[in-house]
């Protein structure tokens, strides 16, 4: 009888652990996220984002970010600037409709975490690191990060070799466990 109970108990423990793993790591992006950008020539927001977030503070080896921002959702508060930003000389939203980040590794830092991976923007893929913090509150949480992107590295505008090549982004993503 004991020989039968041990495998059944082991199976129950594994199933419980697997369920816990899935519920604590798989986060749903909630409404209310914010992607703000500031640069020398334009400020504004991107208003459409989707993606998959797997993150457990206690098991960073399983963390994965796969997030897309819709280029056409850019909003500078100025219709002419929006049209220009979506056009061929800048983002070329028709040809490259998404900015896409996929992490390959997440590491703990003194100030939070770094998501290291590949940023695909304007048809150019480059290694990129996004620093962020995570505030966990039960089955909800919030990812927050501020970082700079050199637009010239991605063929958006002619690089000048100075600070005007960079756009600073501040991202806040509220999440809830799935």
Automatic annotation (TrEMBL):
Residue stretches in coiled coil: none
Membrane-spanning parts: none
Gene3D superfamilies per record: Lipid/polyisoprenoid-binding, YceI-like
Superkingdom field: Bacteria
Domain Lipid/polyisoprenoid-binding YceI-like residues, every copy: 26-176
One Pfam family named in its UniProt record: YceI
InterPro entries for this protein: Lipid/polyisoprenoid-bd_YceI (IPR007372), TTHA0802/YceI-like_sf (IPR036761)
The name this protein goes by in its record: YceI family protein
């Amino acid at each position: 009888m004991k020989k039968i109970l041990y495998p059944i108990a082991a199976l129950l423990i594994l199933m419980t652990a697997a369920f816990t793993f899935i519920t604590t790591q798989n986060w749903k992006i909630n409404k209310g996220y914010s992607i703000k950008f500031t640069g020398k020539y334009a400020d504004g927001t991107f208003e459409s984002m989707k993606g998959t977030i797997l993150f457990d503070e206690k098991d960073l080896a399983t963390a994965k970010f796969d997030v897309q921002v819709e280029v056409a959702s850019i909003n500078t508060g100025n219709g002419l600037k929006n049209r220009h930003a979506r056009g061929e000389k800048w983002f070329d939203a028709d040809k490259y409709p998404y900015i896409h980040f996929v992490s390959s590794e997440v590491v703990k830092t003194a100030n939070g975490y770094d998501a290291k991976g590949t940023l695909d923007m304007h048809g150019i893929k480059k290694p990129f690191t996004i620093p962020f913090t995570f505030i966990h509150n039960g089955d909800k949480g919030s990812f927050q990060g501020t970082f700079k992107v050199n637009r010239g590295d991605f063929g958006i505008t002619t690089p000048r070799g100075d600070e005007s090549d960079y756009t600073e982004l501040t991202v806040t993503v509220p999440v809830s466990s799935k």
